[in-house]
Design goal:
mainly alpha, 11 helices
Length: 245
């Protein structure tokens, strides 16, 4: 399943890899080069340097989620999932197979967006360990979330509702383009309800060494959500909800 997912991602690279890279390129040009050049530095870093980690994370989140939900729903649509389920393959192995595709696509897109960002600014790495752990855990988390969406989706429209009306607002309001410390206190508190904020800040800490939220809180939210989604997916597969009937 992992090999099949990798081959599929690379075979249709113009659909899986190119669109998020082009979108990020436009963000770098508009928000970084044009608007960002008019804005004051944030701490010791230019506005362009500040938004790069957030844009990479946004691309990883979207790519990982989209890959899992589309792959799983298509497997249900063509009834390929039934062939997998009647095999002696344990549920957790099937889940790993689908999630791995989202993780691979998310990481590949993240590397490509990072490469594009180097055309506009230079980056320093404050903690490689934090970078790798955050990006891998985030890709796993949103691959699991996409799998849940795929389980409950009843049509192709059903796999686009969550990315459009939930995922997009969360990422745009997740501290990608701004620091919540510059918000009034009431809006800071509201922003804390957004889980993407913790992932973006943890990833930004890995690059720049700065974060609006303590790192241990970011990891606690990330690990807690990943564990909750994993338990939910295992339960859905065990009960056959949206999978076997």
């Amino acid at each position: 399943m992992i090999r099949k997912e990798f081959v599929r991602i690379m075979r249709i690279w113009s659909q899986t890899l190119l669109p998020p890279v082009i979108t990020s390129l436009l963000y770098f040009i508009v928000f970084g080069a044009f608007i960002g050049s008019q804005l004051p530095p944030i701490g010791d870093f230019s506005y362009m340097q500040f938004i790069v980690p957030g844009l990479i994370m946004m691309s990883v989140i979207t790519s990982a989620y989209t890959n899992s939900v589309s792959t799983f729903y298509f497997a249900k649509f063509v009834r390929n999932i039934e062939e997998i389920l009647v095999s002696p393959t344990p549920d957790w192995v099937v889940i790993v197979g689908f999630v791995s595709g989202g993780v691979m696509r998310g990481l590949i897109v993240g590397v490509l967006v990072l490469a594009v960002s180097l055309l506009f600014t230079h980056l320093t790495v404050y903690s490689t360990a934090v970078l790798l752990v955050v990006i891998i855990l985030t890709a796993i988390l949103f691959s699991l979330a996409g799998l849940i969406n795929g389980v409950f989706a009843k049509s192709f429209d059903g796999i686009s509702i969550v990315p459009t009306f939930v995922l997009a607002p969360l990422t745009y309001l997740g501290g990608v383009f701004y620091s919540v410390e510059r918000f009034p206190e009431v809006w800071q508190n509201i922003s804390l309800a957004n889980p993407v904020l913790y992932m973006v800040n943890a990833f930004r800490y890995g690059f720049l060494g700065i974060s609006d939220i303590p790192l241990w809180i970011c990891f606690s939210v990330l690990l807690g959500m990943m564990l909750a989604f994993l338990i939910l997916v295992l339960w859905l597969f065990r009960e056959g909800i949206g999978v076997k009937h």
